[in-house]
Give the backbone structure.
Amino acid sequence: MRYGSFVLGGEPPASARLGVLTDDDLVLDLTALAARLTLPWPELLVASSLDPLLAAGRRAWREVSDWLSDLVAGEDPELLAAFRHPVAAVSPLLPFTVADYVDFFACEQHAVNAARILGAREDPLAPNWRHLPVGYHGRSSTVRGSGAPIRRPNGQRGPGDFGPTHALDFEAELGFVIGGASVPGEPVHLAAAEDHLFGVVLLNDWSARDIQFWESRPLGPMLGKAFGTSVSCWVTPWDALAAARLPPPPRDPEPLPYLRGPADRGLDVAVQVRLNGELICAPPGDSLYWTAPQMIAHLTSGGAALRPGDLLGSGTLSGPERSQRGCLLELSWGGREPLTLRDGSELTYLRDGDELLVTASAPAVGGGRLELGEVRARVLPAFD
């Protein structure tokens, strides 16, 4: 089951209610159920978004999840029929208010490839990379739900050169949705990090590479990464991915003590990216060198507090094969090796009108595969 917010048909956003997308592609109206049935934490489920549930913390998440599982398993068809809608009949919305957004750089293969594309000759990784989860703060106001279009951004592409990016790119990532607040000034230790992991979304962190590379000297990205980030409208609960947990990869040097512990586990997630319906890459979710619990432990180690609705991006997922590279910067090797599409055309970066679709699945508790919520968006032309 995946949580989200939706409206029916042509209803206005003010009519939004909470829902659960089930494996049979039906949406269960939680808000309507909460108004009719006896259930735990009803005040959290009559809301129009996940915000109250995120703020309530792990105890509430588990009690609501257990209630839902029992309800569906002991299904009364007549009872639930009035509260179910075909997924095609609903319009999903961004399901939570994004508080802060931090994008990490947690995949070693992507970090190595990017450095080599930019001309690194020796050890391509920065001296700090294997010691801590590198990241930067993004613009939470530019996070959009799946289906919302992304407009090609304008910016400085070089000295005296302003205009639409010529190097619009996608980045296939995992997004970690945070719930439960922490205390400012107090770190969230690795052992407690999972208490703040509500769920996982797929994330496409759009990038304007020419703008990004020109402005990122000496500081990090700004306008080249601040115009749009697309996320799934359906959030897969963290506990639902229990069967997808993996041991962390070998690390050298060993992480510092605050980044070590049993909670340091990755995710076995198989991701696919389609451009206008054509599969162009399949980056592995298990390629992350740094895990979500480590991201939380590091982010809060200096005293920063977590807020419900914080969103952490994994950074681009990438594997050793060309077909596993999770962005066009890598797939076209900086534009020097264009990607050949099935119609014979060549692609370096995205064109106006292109549509990107990112999907993924993971091992499910009890066997089989669990589908994560998709993230889809179409590129619009730049403003004049």
Remarks:
- Residues 170 and 206 are 5 Å apart (CA to CA).
- The first helix runs from residue 30 to 36.
- The chain has a mean pLDDT of 95.
- The chain is about 20% helix and 30% strand.
